[in-house]
């Protein structure tokens, strides 16, 4: 476990000027040309969203890169890196970014407070929802004060100005990222603050008496929150199945260090942790950086709250096992799955999780590559056979058919999306917002498209990141020794790129997620009470939705040669051994369990529960 003194030091950080000394080195002319050539090769040959971005924003990044290469002589190192970063940022794709030198890895510029938006009388307001004690000189600057000014600019104007340069396809997602970046910037992936301190104009909101208008000057500092304990290595097999916003992933870690230092301090020993309830009623285990849970009493009943913080983990089997164990400790009357601010991570983990909440078969999202010579050759590389082999035939036929993209195929094998099955009985509500991104987008799309439950969006939709993302390290590892080998960039620079675009299934089959996102069944605007009192109004709203949802339940146990089936509001069950039906439908009642001789099976015994002719519950017992 990290010590409290070490945690306090990590929170305090270093002056911004120290990080500025480690900005991009002034690359020499030949290295600058090498970097540009690599980006032209990646954007023109591999970038999955190139046709979309050209059409949507009227840009030509490949031509811009060629023009930059022509103007290298008069450009210094700093100007070169800024212009290159601006070209890549013009794609407005948080998956595709220019990555700074390794010396900046994990470094986040931060102010010691958090800003969140809420709505009052139809207008947006901006409130300080968290402050780190002892790091702001003004004792009146506390949680609950409202912001009016930012460096002398009205706060709404300052946010709109930042939103124009943020990596968000929709205006609301750009504003959501702008609010976050007012106080947190990942230095390896985005420009550092121009100013070394900010002057914040704020208003107190006391329970009694008039409010006061005040001003405080707060310096930027740089912290290094380190990767999570389950972080994925760029050289691992899982690295080719990522969908993550790297900026948001760094910021999420920084927020944990600043505002939940006890958990940050404890996570060194997380690999040994067992699922348990802590003193605050939170259910956590080994994957505490990715998932936690709590029981939430509301006026409509007592429900479970499953918080999915992120999918940055390599062991999806272990993750699912832990979620199943957590769900067993929550009320079965209804569940809120909260994916707000989830930056994504491992696609397998996000999509496989869906099966735990539905009796129906889950269909994962589909992914396709841009049909180019580069993607075709990439799919031919021997070490990529398992990763890209299924796409090779359609990439090859595109030469004759003129198709823009390959065939759309799943990254997560459908059999793995259904190899566990339903474990949670009650109705489910998912909550997302404009910062739910990448694998978070994919979970949301699967939740809606597979008709698992009701989805509530705080704002218009999810963050709209629809792609599988590879880093420069992953691309280099998967092409080493091949005719199309990609080498790491000089001066410690790098990139991430959207290499396979995601499209939806079900009633929305074929629709892209990028720059559109996933809309919910209901929209919700956060209130001031939500920010002050742990989402009080939001959970009341979700509780009403859960209470109004029809509820069935089924519990299946096998012991001592007998199969016991307890049900709620079901009319019949069917039993299958290794996918073969055992007898006919069996009528059931709520009053007493149904007992049957335990059928023999080699792989799986499955019980399906029906209300009338509609499948409502399904449980599987594996051999």
Describe this structure in words.
The structure is a single chain. By secondary structure, this protein is an alpha+beta fold. 29% of the residues lie in helices and 26% in strands. The strands form nine sheets. Strands 15-16-17-20-21-24 form a six-stranded mixed sheet. Strands 27, 28, 29, 31 and 32 form a five-stranded antiparallel sheet that branches. Strands 1-11-3-8 form a four-stranded antiparallel sheet. A hairpin with a 2-residue loop joins strand 25 and strand 26 (562-568). Helix 12 packs parallel to helix 15. The longest helix is centred in the first third of the chain and has 17 residues, at 29-45. 46% of the residues are buried.
List its traits:
single chain, 623 residues, alpha+beta, 5-stranded antiparallel beta sheet, 26% strand, globular
At a glance:
The chain is α+β, with helices and mostly antiparallel strands. The protein is built from 18 helices and 32 strands. The relative contact order is 0.12.
Class from secondary-structure proportions = alpha+beta
Distance between the ends: 39 Å
Output the strand order for the largest sheet. 15-16-17-20-21-24
Number of strands: 32
Helix and strand layout, with pairings?
Elements: H1 4-12, E1 14-15, H2 16-20, H3 29-45, H4 50-57, H5 61-70, H6 77-89, E2 97-99, E3 108-110, E4 113-120, E5 123-131, E6 146-150, E7 153-154, H7 155-163, H8 171-181, E8 184-186, E9 197-203, E10 213-219, E11 221-223, E12 242-244, H9 246-259, H10 261-266, E13 276-277, E14 283-284, E15 291-298, E16 301-308, H11 316-327, E17 335-338, E18 344-346, H12 347-353, E19 366-368, H13 373-380, H14 385-401, E20 428-433, H15 439-449, E21 454-458, E22 467-471, H16 472-477, E23 494-503, E24 522-524, H17 528-532, H18 536-547, E25 553-559, E26 562-568, E27 572-577, E28 580-581, E29 586-587, E30 594-597, E31 604-611, E32 614-622
Parallel strand pairs: 16-17, 17-20, 20-21, 21-24
Antiparallel strand pairs: 1-11, 2-23, 3-8, 3-11, 4-5, 6-7, 6-9, 9-10, 12-18, 13-14, 15-16, 19-23, 22-23, 25-26, 26-30, 27-28, 27-29, 27-31, 31-32
Helix pairs in contact: 3-5, 5-6, 7-8, 11-12, 12-15, 13-14
């Amino acid at each position: 476990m990290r010590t409290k003194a070490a945690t306090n030091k990590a929170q305090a950080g270093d002056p911004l000027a120290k990080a500025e000394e480690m900005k991009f080195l002034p690359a020499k002319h030949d290295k600058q040309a090498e970097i540009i050539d690599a980006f032209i090769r990646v954007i023109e040959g591999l970038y999955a969203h190139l046709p979309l971005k050209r059409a949507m924003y009227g840009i030509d990044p490949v031509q811009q890169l060629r023009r930059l290469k022509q103007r290298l002589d008069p450009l210094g190192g700093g100007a070169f890196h800024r212009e290159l970063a601006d070209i890549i940022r013009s794609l407005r794709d948080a998956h595709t970014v220019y990555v700074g030198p390794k010396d900046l890895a994990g470094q986040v510029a931060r102010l010691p407070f958090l800003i969140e938006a809420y709505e009052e009388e139809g207008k947006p307001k901006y409130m300080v929802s968290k402050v780190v004690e002892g790091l702001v000189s003004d004792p009146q600057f506390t949680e609950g004060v409202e912001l009016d000014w930012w460096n002398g600019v009205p706060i709404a104007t300052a946010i709109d100005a930042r939103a124009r340069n943020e990596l968000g396809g929709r205006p609301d997602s750009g504003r959501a990222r702008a609010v976050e970046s007012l106080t947190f910037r990942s230095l390896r992936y985005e420009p550092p603050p121009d100013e070394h301190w900010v002057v914040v104009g704020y208003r107190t909101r006391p329970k009694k008496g008039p409010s006061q208008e005040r001003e405080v000057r707060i310096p930027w500092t740089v912290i290094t929150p380190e990767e999570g304990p389950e972080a994925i290595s760029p050289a691992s097999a899982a690295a080719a199945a990522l969908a993550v916003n790297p900026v948001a992933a760094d910021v999420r870690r920084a927020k944990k260090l600043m505002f939940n230092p006890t958990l940050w301090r404890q996570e060194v020993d997380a690999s040994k942790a067992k699922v348990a309830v802590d003193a605050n009623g939170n259910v956590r285990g080994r994957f505490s950086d990715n998932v936690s849970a709590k029981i939430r009493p509301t006026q409509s009943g007592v429900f479970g709250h499953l918080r999915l913080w992120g999918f940055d983990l390599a062991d999806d089997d272990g993750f699912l096992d832990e979620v199943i164990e957590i769900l067993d400790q929550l009320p079965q009357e209804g569940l809120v799955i909260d994916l707000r601010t989830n930056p994504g991570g491992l696609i397998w983990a996000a999509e496989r999780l869906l099966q735990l909440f539905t009796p129906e078969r889950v269909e994962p999202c589909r992914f396709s590559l841009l049909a180019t010579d580069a993607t075709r050759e990439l799919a031919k590389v021997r070490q990529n056979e398992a990763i890209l082999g299924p796409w090779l035939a359609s990439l090859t036929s595109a030469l004759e058919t003129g198709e823009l993209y390959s065939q759309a195929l799943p990254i997560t094998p459908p059999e793995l999306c259904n190899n566990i099955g339903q474990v949670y009985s009650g109705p489910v509500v998912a909550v997302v917002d404009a910062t739910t991104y990448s694998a978070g987008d994919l979970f949301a799309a699967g939740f809606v498209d597979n008709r698992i439950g009701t989805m509530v969006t705080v704002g218009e939709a999810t963050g709209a990141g629809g792609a599988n993302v590879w880093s420069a390290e992953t691309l280099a590892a998967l092409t080493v020794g091949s005719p199309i080998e990609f080498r790491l960039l000089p001066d410690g620079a790098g990139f991430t790129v959207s290499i396979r675009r995601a499209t939806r299934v079900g009633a929305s089959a074929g629709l892209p997620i990028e720059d559109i996102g996933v809309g919910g069944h209901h929209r919700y605007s956060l209130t001031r009470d939500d920010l002050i009192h742990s989402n009080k109004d939001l959970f009341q709203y979700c509780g009403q939705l859960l209470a109004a949802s029809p509820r069935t339940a089924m519990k299946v146990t096998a012991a001592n040669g007998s199969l016991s089936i307890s049900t709620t509001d079901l009319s019949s069950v069917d039993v299958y051994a290794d996918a073969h039906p055992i007898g006919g439908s069996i009528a059931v009642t709520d009053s007493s369990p149904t007992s049957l001789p335990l059928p023999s099976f080699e792989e799986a015994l499955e019980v399906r529960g029906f209300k009338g002719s509609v499948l409502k519950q399904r449980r599987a017992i594996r051999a």
